[in-house]
Amino acid sequence: MAGIVIGVDSSTQSTKALAVDTATGEVLGEGRAAHTVTGSGGARESDPRQWWQALQDAVAGTGCAGRAEALAIGGQQHGLVALDADGVPVHPALLWNDTRSAGQAAALVDELGREDWARRTGSVPNASFTVAKWAWLRDHGLTGRVAAVRLPHEYLTERLTGRPAAERSDASGTGWWGEHGWDRGVLDLVGLDEALLPPLAEPGTAAGETTGPFGGLRPGIPVALGAGDNAAAALGLGLGGGTGAVHGQPALSLGTSGTVYAVTRGRPADPTGTVAGFAAAHGDWLPLACTLNCTLAVDRFATLLGRDRQAVEPGGEAVVLPFLDGERTPALPHAAGLVHGLRHDTTPGQLLQAAYDGAAYALLAALDLVLAAGSETAGDAPLLLIGGGARGRAWQDTVRRLSGRAVQVPAAGELVALGAAAQAAGLLTGEHPAEVARRWDTAAGPVLDPVEKDEAAAARIAAVLAAGAPLLGA
Ligand SMILES: Nc1ncnc2c1ncn2[C@@H]1O[C@H](COP(=O)(O)OP(=O)(O)O)[C@@H](O)[C@H]1O
Ligand SMILES: O=C(CO)[C@@H](O)[C@H](O)COP(=O)(O)O
């Protein structure tokens, strides 16, 4: 079973590619290329052609492209790639954290009602969902020349294979996918012709084969369907079905977005909208809550305070709600950051700690809702901590203190790319990708013991959130 597969994470800030030994899971090479995100106020856009170049650069950077036998891509969710008849973007992609579509999301929720959205699509759409972004493009007269609508990883996979293909994990973040396929009622509601969407493919099948020597890949190697980045990370952690299946163990990802999720057999349908009812990539479900302000917001506070990001100090009563980009959880798309409770003796290190607390609080508050939505918990299994922020001691300590849970930090750094690699390997071996990741032991890493939960800090944040509602645009 020897051979090499490549897994790609095309995320908000960069593309990362790993070349992985199919038999052992050893990472043989790594490539990376940065993305540019433009926009101020609520706007967040990227040119999809830049992702395509970054994909080729990152794949070439692994040093193993010519020996790869299969490849798959995990991509940032929700983004709207609108292409003309020649496959050229008619507009930069509207990203998951672009909040200009908040008004369209609210109008769509009013039209069908929260219960109906949750029942049909598993989720109540917010500004992140593709359906709200399409409505925003429509309302701004920008849909006229659109001949194809793609999600970020669909766009990239299609450029590799020349064939359009959609899959359930990322489709479930559009707002126009239901358990049994595209929801024609929702498509009619927003005036989107189903012919503009790629056909849905069955999990475990190939999207196609490479049609050129992209980034040094051999033409003709199979390309797996790919997945939304959170679903890919779940595969990369070995969460989900197959032999030795793992269901209900929570994971928390600290990156541009903060996410908390579990793979469950129960289909989530939360009418409050806090938990998105995503599909996992190969069957199962992925109840998930997501924040817009995570590592970038905390890093911004560190910069404002002139401190290293790890230079936190305990104590004090300051509360920071770091909603620099507006916020999705809680649903405050028009909010700005809020600092409360400053005293003469508040130190910069305490203020920085308060920013970490404010960013982690909403995710941890949503954790129980996530598990309840999927009707599954894996006993007292540790909380898996991943994403760039998981490398930071201050993040690890904050999550332990505000959750009161044991936390496991996988030694493997790039779980999305590893999950994509496991999917590519599964295409070759016939295994479930989560089973491949378990065989590779990708989640292995130190388990940090639980510490007493800091109920006082959580109560302070909850009180400021409630009292600050008018300032936060609630
Ligand atoms: N040691 C660290 N401590 C805290 N944050 C870190 C550390 N290393 C990286 N990061 C943060 O991780 C983020 C990138 O995480 P990543 O999961 O790669 O993001 P994304 O996939 O959303 O592009 C950066 O915003 C950076 O601030
Ligand atoms: O919107 C969501 C999930 O619903 C985000 O998690 C995006 O998928 C972006 O991911 P990163 O770039 O932060 O990894």
Automatic annotation (TrEMBL):
Its EC number is 2.7.1.17. Residues 308-425 form the Carbohydrate kinase FGGY C-terminal domain. Keywords: ATP-binding, Carbohydrate metabolism, Kinase, Nucleotide-binding, Transferase, Xylose metabolism. InterPro entries: ATPase_NBD, Carb_kinase_FGGY, Carb_kinase_FGGY_CS, FGGY_C, FGGY_Carb_Kinase, FGGY_N, Xylulokinase. It catalyses: D-xylulose + ATP = D-xylulose 5-phosphate + ADP + H(+). It comes from the Bacteria. The keyword Nucleotide-binding applies. It holds the Pfam family FGGY_C. It is an enzyme of class 2 (transferase). Residues 4-236 form the Carbohydrate kinase FGGY N-terminal domain. The keyword Transferase applies. Belongs to the FGGY kinase family. This is Xylulose kinase. It comes from Kitasatospora arboriphila. The gene is xylB.
